[in-house]
Amino acid sequence: MPSIHRYLTLLFLVFPWVLRGADRPQFGDAWSRNMTSAERGLSATFNPTNQAGIRWSVPLGASGTESHSTPVIANGRVYIGTNNELPRDPRRTGDRGVLLCLSEKTGELEWQLVVPKREQDIYHDWPKSGISSPVTVEGNRAYLVDNRGVVLCLDVRGLVNGNQGETGESAYYTPKNTNGIPVGEALCLGALDADILWSFDLTRECQIWSHDAAHSSVLIQGDYLYLNTGNGVDSTHRLIHRPEAPSLVVLDKRTGRWVAHDGLRIGPRIFHCTWSSPSLGRVGGRSTVLFAGGDGVLYGFEPYKASRSGVSLLENPWRFDCDPEGPKSSVGSYLNNRREGPSNIYGMPVVTGGRIYVAGGGDWFWGKNEAWIKCIDTRGSGDRTRTNLLWTYALGRHTMSTPAVANGLVFAADSMRTIHCVDAATGAGLWSHELDGEVWASALVADGKVYIGTRRGGFWTFALGRQKKVLGMVQLGSPISATAVAANGVLYVGTGTRLYAVGK
């Protein structure tokens, strides 16, 4: 009989997908959004100076600029958002939002989406922030909220196979002045350009008022897309221009038709913006779309059921106020108040093991100095604020983290440059470690390791365990906003200026 080694070799040659690891087609674990991965054989450290341990790396932006998007890996391609400080098309220079589609094997460019900035207000589309949202890939389609707050359905092959959807890409990719008049001639597109199958403009259709940068990770459930709208304050940071605009919308993934929204009029209670993306899990004994509103409240919605009549309102049978003592009216009056004010949630709620783990607190830039991880029981229905809190763990000042929950442990970082390891059952602090800078990313747990990057460019690796053990720290020389991603035996680390594919 052939040896097991020979058998596996033959199996791989005939069926190469058998030994292939797992793709990462969306931000976080499907669908709970947990920041964990089952990948094995990942490196604990690498050397960007001599390229040791690095499979490939590609530049994202010029020095001094920033890319904030977390990479997504699916079907042999890597997708990551950036800005246009390193133009890949000499006809398109200046500040724009860019989505790169790269070869997973080599990092070479397959195609790019290049979107002009919104010019009406600097706070709609912050300079040089590029495309911050990660894509969500399903089959031959990639779904994205671009820097203009437009939901796009893209052909994962780009225009190399011809135009499969909308024929107005050229007009969309051409900059316009503040009056909406095109500046210059429409571009002639080619095989290195993105193919838009359909688009949905959140500003025009839902009347939102976006703020700073659009950030939304699309959740797919059946035939429908769920996404946060990014409705927020204006440039004064005190006024909600569009209080009636929805915070959560549902679109038909096949056509982009708007089919439902939250209907809760969260707008007047938003302190900064609606940046938390929805997750999916069992809440109250039923499949539930869980959404953290810009008012610090967790809302549990029943998944949309097809309706023939107009835009429906989602059923909301479950909710939990993460800060019941915080103000819910005149929230703009608490601007720059570091002692008291409303709460906000930047990361996503994680549903696992009959519990919800969420990190949030006072707004990082404008709110009170208070942050926490909360663990919430998923049972029951109605308002569970007074009954379902299992524990709270205090973080330092502010946090943007989505918790990573694994092996009975919870990991999250805060603005005090500290990563925390907490007992998932009790909320007891087990260990913490002061990092080299503030953290905007989330921790990734994979291969018995905990990975996290800082805004001072440090990329840290810890052992997964109840006792602290630092495995390594690499200085990458550029701020890190993106969460590390593991897929198919490779660790992807994105900084403000470069994407690294780390692996043998």
What can be said about this structure in brief?
The chain is mostly beta strands and 504 residues long.
Task: Please tell me about this protein's structure.
With 504 residues, this protein is mainly β. Helix content is 4%, strand content 35%. The chain has helices at residues 4-14, 169-172, 202-206; strands at 36-37, 54-59, 72-74, 77-83, 96-103, 109-116, 136-138, 141-145, 150-155, 196-201, 219-221, 224-228, 248-252, 258-261, 279-283, 286-292, 297-301, 312-313, 318-321, 343-344, 350-352, 355-362, 371-377, 382-383, 389-395, 404-406, 409-413, 418-423, 429-434, 444-446, 449-453, 458-463, 470-475, 485-487, 490-494, 498-502. The strands form eight sheets. A five-stranded mixed beta sheet has the order 1-30-31-32-33, with no helix packed on it. A five-stranded mixed beta sheet has the order 11-12-13-14-18, with no helix packed on it. It starts with a helix and ends with a strand. Mean pLDDT is 93; it is low at 1-20.
Could you list some keywords that capture this structure?
36 strands; disordered N terminus; Methylamine Dehydrogenase, Chain H; mainly beta; globular; 504 residues
The CA-CA distance between the termini, in Å, is: 31 Å
Helix content: under 10%
Largest sheet: 5 strands, mixed
Q: Mean of residue pLDDT?
A: 93
Our count of domains comes out at 1
Order the strands across the largest sheet as they lie in space: 1-30-31-32-33
SSE blueprint and pairings:
Blueprint: H1 4-14, E1 36-37, E2 54-59, E3 72-74, E4 77-83, E5 96-103, E6 109-116, E7 136-138, E8 141-145, E9 150-155, H2 169-172, E10 196-201, H3 202-206, E11 219-221, E12 224-228, E13 248-252, E14 258-261, E15 279-283, E16 286-292, E17 297-301, E18 312-313, E19 318-321, E20 343-344, E21 350-352, E22 355-362, E23 371-377, E24 382-383, E25 389-395, E26 404-406, E27 409-413, E28 418-423, E29 429-434, E30 444-446, E31 449-453, E32 458-463, E33 470-475, E34 485-487, E35 490-494, E36 498-502
Parallel strand pairs: 1-30, 14-18, 19-24
Antiparallel strand pairs: 2-36, 3-4, 4-5, 5-6, 7-8, 8-9, 9-10, 11-12, 12-13, 13-14, 15-16, 16-17, 17-19, 20-22, 21-22, 22-23, 23-25, 26-27, 27-28, 28-29, 30-31, 31-32, 32-33, 34-35, 35-36
